[in-house]
Write a structure and sequence with these properties.
Strand 8 and strand 9 (143-150) form a beta hairpin. The chain has helices spanning 30-35, 59-65, 91-113, 175-200, and strands at 2-5, 10-18, 41-52, 71-85, 118-120, 123-126, 129-130, 132-138, 143-150. The protein has 4 helices and 9 strands; from the N terminus they run E-E-H-E-H-E-H-E-E-E-E-E-H.
């Protein structure tokens, strides 16, 4: 596990273990319970996606897709990012931060693959195939983001046209390639958040 402690946020890369995303990881204080990280954080890990209806936060998706069964978000292999902010942001703020994270992921994947992705809101697409899933939500003590990006199409829902890092030409059998992508995305997000905090502290107020 690698930990980069910036001034305002911790960046954690799980480079030595697999961890599945079930939806319970979006609950408050997960990073503190699991990794003893007691500040704003982004945790990046590689594992399966397996989210049941009871753990989903997007009511629109639940209404539209519950006819397909109990497990709606699934993939045998994905990279996942869990973000938590404790500055009591409103729901709009955490959705704006989610868009920053998704845009960073798009930028880095395009740089690595030299292929163009499309972003529609909080979703990334390649060749009209859905590459990612994401949610932003707010609790009493913090706000959270999850972003999952398909490493492989195996295990994805058959009623959704999906794409993956493998489709983009990345050698997904080389685990270091996956770790490098996770680390670049998580680190850039952490640095972006840290820079925003520093910019706030150098800007003079309007009178």
């Amino acid at each position: 596990m690698k930990i980069l402690n910036l001034d305002s946020i911790s960046v954690v890369i799980l480079d030595d273990e697999k961890l599945n995303y079930t939806g319970s990881e979006i609950e408050p204080l997960w990073a503190f319970k699991k990794f003893n990280i007691q500040k704003d954080s982004i945790i990046a890990f590689n594992g399966a996606l397996n989210v049941s209806v009871k753990n989903m936060k997007d009511l629109k998706d639940i209404k539209e897709e519950s006819k397909y069964g109990d497990v709606l978000i699934k993939s045998s292999n994905a990279i996942n990012f869990i973000v938590e902010h404790f500055d009591n942001p409103d729901l709009k703020m955490i959705y704006l931060r989610q868009r920053i994270l998704v845009s960073i992921a798009k930028e880095i994947i395009e740089e690595i693959t030299n292929k163009k992705l499309k972003r529609n809101g909080d979703d990334l697409y390649y060749n009209n195939g859905k590459l990612s899933v994401s949610i932003a939500c707010r609790g009493i003590s913090s706000a959270k983001i999850h972003l999952g990006i398909n490493v492989s199409n195996i295990g994805a829902p058959d009623y959704i046209n999906t794409s993956s890092l493998g489709d983009l030409g990345i050698d997904i059998h080389d685990n270091q390639n996956i770790i490098d992508i996770m680390e670049k995305i998580a680190t850039k997000y952490g640095e972006e958040m840290d820079k925003i905090e520093k910019d706030m502290r150098k800007t003079m107020y309007l009178i």
